Amino acid sequence: MDCLFCKIINGEIPSNKVYEDELVYAFRDIEPQAPTHILIIPKQHIKSAAEIDESNSAVVAHIFEVAAKIAKQEGLDDGFRIVNNCGDIAGQTVKHLHFHLMGGREFGWPAG
Ligand code: 5GP
Ligand code: ZN
Fold it and tell me: Is residue 29 lining ligand 1, measured as CB closer than 6 Å?
């Protein structure tokens, strides 16, 4: 399958790994939008948040456990933002489910 993040998981494309276990892979975003900007992805290819259902949702709970662990490791004690862009209208550019974990600066709402 021609998927950028599947290639990152299997090492075909290099990445700056932050965390890995049997279910998920986390690595630094190539174009960071905050001092800490990490992408957390399931090893299973899920296209987007719209494809989450009862058969694959356990990995999403696990991703949030991992996010909290990484946030502690990164010293994001003042808080952080977790973002998922789903579909073209939301700006999803890579069609493999991923959660952005960002911290180290203040964030606006709803954007920025
Ligand atoms: P999206 O826009 O789909 O929510 O997020 C995709 C993210 O993947 C973007 O923040 C982009 O900077 C990041 N990205 C795209 N290609 C690569 C890559 O080859 N390596 C890494 N580490 N990040 C990438
Ligand atoms: Zn993939």
Answer: yes
How many residues can be counted in the chain? 112
Q: Kindly state if the Cβ of 53 falls inside 6 Å of ligand 1.
A: no
Ligand 2 ion: residues within 5 Å (CB)? 3, 5-6, 45, 96
The helix or strand, by DSSP H or E, that contains position 82, with its residue range, turns out to be strand 81-83
**pTM for the predicted model, two decimal places:** 0.98
pLDDT in tens, 61-106: 999 999 999 999 999 999 999 999 999 999 999 999 999 999 999 9
Confidence bin at 112 (pLDDT 50/70/90): low
Nearest to residue 5, comparing CAs of 108, 98, 84, 99? 98
CA of 22 to the centre of ligand 2 (A): 15
